[in-house]
Amino acid sequence: MFNLNFSAKIREAEEHIKQGEKYMKTSFMKWKPDLDSAIDEFDKACTCYRVAEKYEQCRDLSIRLGELQIQKGTPFFAAKSYEQAAQMTQQLQDLPTAAKYYDRAGQLYIEGGYRDSASILYERCAPQFQQLDRAISIDFYLKAARLAEQEEKAYQAADLYEKAAMQTIRTGNYQQTTQLLETVTTVLTKMDRFDRINRVILYRILLKLFNDDSVAARNIFDQACQTYPSFDQWEEHDHIELLLDAFDQDDKDLISQRCQKPYFMAIEPEFVRLIKRWIRPTTNNNEQQRATTTTNPTPSSTGGTKPIQLDDDEDDLR
């Protein structure tokens, strides 16, 4: 019954396409195709193919539908068609091509003056391509951020720039990450959102330390103390300064000790992963000595008392 329903939907789609093709034809008495009627028929056919899980046919027809809507002068609906084409392409496991169709949809939204819709689309799609190609994800986040800025949505723009930065650091591109976080700082400063700046400044300091540039890290710290009272009064301020002092002293053991503060271990996971490279294994001599004493008791430690012997049942339980 399930397959029969699909077969019925496929036949219905074919009928809609056949009718749509008739509307597209011209003749001596009909100089222009009837785009509105053709688009309506092709749209119905797309729905039938989607329900029947004929993703390839739905994708191809969606692209054709999008081009007809461009021809008609309705970029918003053309963008919707390209979004549908992208979704069908994802179902076909062709993510690189799906990304291109999503990007085309975003461009059409922008061309039609729907920048907010484009920004939402790029932000929604960006996480879907993180595993495939972070460059695509970064590009989508940046496009969404710039559109949010154009729409004067500064807080949203700052959030999107930060998301892009969290992707660039995973590629090892510390320079681009630094630039993006500087942009975030600038946007938040204009908004007087000092509550969010502290964490961003910490990320910028850590990036300099990852690049073995403790002087630049110290400069960021000192400037932040002078510029942002919220940072100077932040409860993590002293821990950051102590970490910088350890780097100034080039004391790897001290760096290892100070970078393990709870807050440092609770930030963005990629930063935590990089911080953990500074942690050095330590040996507590006192604990080691106690362990040795417990494992190998001397006559003096036992006071000449014979150790207690477990019976067979106790051995089984142990």
Folded structure, characterized:
The chain is an all-alpha fold and 318 residues long. Helix content is 74%, strand content 0%. It contains 18 helices and no strands. It has helices at 2-24, 35-51, 55-72, 75-91, 95-111, 115-125, 134-150, 154-168, 174-191, 194-210, 214-227, 229-232, 237-248, 252-258, 269-275, 285-295, 299-302, 312-317.
Q: Main sheet, how many strands, which sense, barrel?
A: none
Indicate the mean pLDDT.
Answer: 87
Task: Tell the overall outline.
Answer: elongated
User: What is the helix content?
Assistant: over 70%
Q: Count the E strands.
A: 0
Task: Write the element-wise H/E pattern from the N-terminal end onward.
Answer: HHHHHHHHHHHHHHHHHH
What is the tally of helical segments? 18
**Structural class based on helices, strands and sheet pairing:** mainly alpha
- Radius of gyration from the CA trace? 31 Å
N-to-C terminal Cα separation, in Å? 61 Å
Beta-strand residue fraction: under 5%
Uncertain regions spanning at least 5 consecutive residues: 285-318
Quick summary:
The protein is mainly alpha-helical. 74% of the residues lie in helices and 0% in strands. It has helices at 2-24, 35-51, 55-72, 75-91, 95-111, 115-125, 134-150, 154-168, 174-191, 194-210, 214-227, 229-232, 237-248, 252-258, 269-275, 285-295, 299-302, 312-317.
